[in-house]
Specification:
The chain has 71 residues and is α+β, with helices and mostly antiparallel strands. The chain is built from two helices and four strands. A two-stranded parallel sheet has the order 1-4. Strands 2-3 form a two-stranded antiparallel ribbon.
Length: 71
Amino acid sequence: MDSIQFDDELIGCSVFAQELLPNENKSNQLGINLGAVRSRIGELVEPYNVERLIIQITDIEEMLHAGSELF
């Protein structure tokens, strides 16, 4: 989805690449360090009001590739 297509009514938050976590048991799955996201955005917006997390495809691909090399 292109960023111009996002619904402006919803509060969204980008997830940075360093906040993505490889799954040790399943190399094709990622997790999100929600604590890190919450800490980063906490001064700007109430984290519990965020309705959408936005992750760039390139960050996902990079992390999945790195995770498959690690495990």
